[in-house]
Amino acid sequence: MATMLDVSLRAGVSKATVSRVLNGTGQVKESTRAQVYRAMEELGYRPNFLAQSLANRTSNSIGLVVSCFDGFYFGRLLQQASRQAEAHGKQLIVTDGHDIPAREEEAVQMLADRRCDAIILYTRFMSEKAIARLIDAIPMPLIVINRELFQAHDKCVFFEQQDAALQAVDYLISQGHHDIACITAPIHTPTGKARLMGYRKALEKHGIRWDPAKVKYGDSSMTQGYALCREILLEGVKVSAVFACNDDMALGASKALYQAGLRIPQDISLFGFDDAPCARWLEPGLSTVCLPIDSMITTAIDQAIKLASHQEIEAIPPFTGTLVLRESVTTGPFFRG
């Protein structure tokens, strides 16, 4: 069985350099790293990570707790998290908290027991107080995604949900739409509350009256988007545009509009949120808000590794969305171009 010394001799580098490559620590030139990996492959060398973790008191792993494994959003987040962990020479260990705060806490503790170097937590429902307790309770760094922590800005990566929703609705208003229906994300989550508030703030900004009849409370699913859009139509609510707080609900709403004989955008405009893959393939293409998912998880892992390495860190500025304008929106009855 090949040893680390055999690898160093084959690669023409020191044993310490091989160790740095394996541990993802220190400065190593890319050409040297490639030599080491080539030598490992030629010799069939498999590093003993358990022995390394016992010797270095590190598992060379990053733990990630997500609220669920469903949908394109988490698929993309996991893909980028895996790439970024690998770039740092770390193994990614992922578990699902099932959107239940108690299960999420258990998942964090399980990853802590496995001596992960750092842990990333994506939570929608856990209270800030419970998150603060977790940060204090576990010995390794904990970085939280999707939540603003007012007492720990250096340990959270979050997105300006309210501002992004405000921009989307502001755009609809600028196109002459004053009668805008809103199908919300789960309203008991910080994300759902923030996106609804962005809708309300945009109306307020333009002096448009808030009408509760134009708001339906959804659960982020296509089924609810379809059912709630049908309710709006059956109730005879006057609308020239629908703002769905995620693209799945917008997709469901588009079917309800089609079945009602309404053309998008000639008869009614439609705006989504998230820029899911389906948005560009919907006919017509769905206008939506693009979230910087890749940048957010990359930043979270980088911050976690800095903390684990006892490096100086700074608070991370909030991420912002970008409007992606496609064919599902046209000018409304109040447009003054």
The ordered string of helix (H) and strand (E) elements is HHHHEHEHEHEEHEHEHEHEHEHE
Q: How much of the residues is beta strand, in percent?
A: 5-15%
Amino-to-carboxy terminus distance:
75 Å
Total helical elements:
13
Q: Which structural class fits the helix and strand makeup?
A: alpha/beta
Describe this structure in words.
The structure is a single chain. With 337 residues, this protein is of the alpha/beta class. Helices cover 46% and strands 13% of the residues. The chain is built from 13 helices and eleven strands. The strands form three sheets. It has a five-stranded parallel beta sheet, sandwiched between helices. Helix 7 links the parallel strand 3 and strand 4. Helix 1 packs across helix 3. The N and C termini lie far apart (75 Å). The mean pLDDT is 91.
